[in-house]
Design brief:
It is a single chain. The protein is α+β, with helices and mostly antiparallel strands. The protein has a single domain, classed as q2cbj1_9rhob like domain (Jelly Rolls). The protein has six helices and 18 strands. This is Prolyl 4-hydroxylase alpha subunit domain-containing protein. InterPro entries: P4HA-like, Pro_4_hyd_alph. It comes from Talaromyces proteolyticus. Its cofactor is L-ascorbate.
Length: 298
């Protein structure tokens, strides 16, 4: 049995109540002046709750198909970290969550079609001498947006799980023809800041810093994943020593977070209760203008 995606799923048009905003780190609370030239933005209501649920169901179905196409229980493997040279390693002191890797060019293309109006508004289609985004590799170079990485990484955090502060690395395709410069996070559940018990989150964070506690890790995953989502923000911090000076983006159903890989230290805050689901992928670029390639072929 093959995985079928409905033809009308994730149409190019975003819901009518979609909104977007750029994160101005020079005026956030707290302010992070070091990031004043760095890019991050949020889109709210990018997907409906039904679309988020269907996207998650597709990922779980992809992880539930055995080699002989029989349905089994979805397998959320433990997420690993990149250690260079195309290799990964398990390091639960840094990253502790479940992951399903779902390679789907079809879904990536549909998500990009909906994202493109925002990318155009934010001048992301063409990067020319944009070294704040590209680093020194962008000096006197122009990069053109080509696609979203078809490798969609679905992440599942239950009570006690996290991804400690880190910088996202660039992904370079094996033929070295494309490189990524931006991360895209799609939040599939959550109620945003208004749905959080902020006093309890702060209390648990202080406890965690003091004792190194990450949640009720003695309970089963099923027990830890029950209830309302508590914690789990994506936090930008100026340095590891200043993790209490965080600009937070809270999980919210249908929300999207877009930010540059380069020079933005961030992490997935501990989830203290409930379950957090997100999807992560990259925005890919090439030095060759895809429109020029299309014209040459026609």
């Amino acid at each position: 049995m093959s995985l079928t995606i409905r033809p009308d799923f994730l149409s190019p048009q975003a819901p009518p109540n979609v909104t977007s905003s750029i994160i101005d780190f020079n005026s956030t609370t707290p302010r992070i002046r070091a990031y004043k030239r760095n890019f991050a933005a949020v889109i709210d209501n990018f997907m409906t709750e039904a679309e988020c649920n269907e996207l998650l169901a597709l990922a779980e179905k992809s992880a539930a198909l055995s080699s002989d196409n029989k349905i089994q229980t979805p397998i959320w493997e433990r997420a690993m970290i990149n250690v260079g040279g195309g290799k990964q390693a398990m390091a639960t002191d840094v990253r502790n969550c479940g992951r399903i890797i779902f390679d789907s060019t079809e879904l990536a293309d549909r998500l990009l079609a909906r994202l493109i109006p925002f990318f155009r508004r934010w001048d992301m289609e063409r990067l020319e001498n944009r070294m704040a985004v590209t680093g020194l590799t962008g000096r006197q170079n122009t990069y053109y947006l080509t696609r979203l990485n078809e490798r969609l990484r679905f992440l599942k955090y239950v009570g006690g799980e996290y991804f400690r502060p880190h910088w996202d690395g660039r992904y370079i395709t094996p033929d070295r023809g494309e490189v990524s410069f931006y991360t895209v996070h799609f939040y599939l559940n959550g109620e945003g800041e208004s749905g959080q018990d902020l006093k309890e989150v702060l209390r648990r964070e202080k406890e965690e810093r003091k004792w190194g506690c990450d949640g009720e890790v003695g309970d089963s995953e099923e027990e830890r994943g029950k209830g309302r989502l508590l914690g789990g923000a994506t936090s930008f911090i100026p340095s590891w020593e200043e993790d209490d000076q965080a600009v937070r983006v809270w999980p919210k159903t249908g929300r999207v977070l877009v930010f540059q890989h380069n020079d933005l230290l961030h992490g997935g805050d501990s989830v203290y209760g409930g379950t957090k689901y997100t999807v992560r992928t990259d925005v890919m670029y090439s030095k060759t203008n895809p429109l020029s390639q299309a014209s040459a072929k026609s």
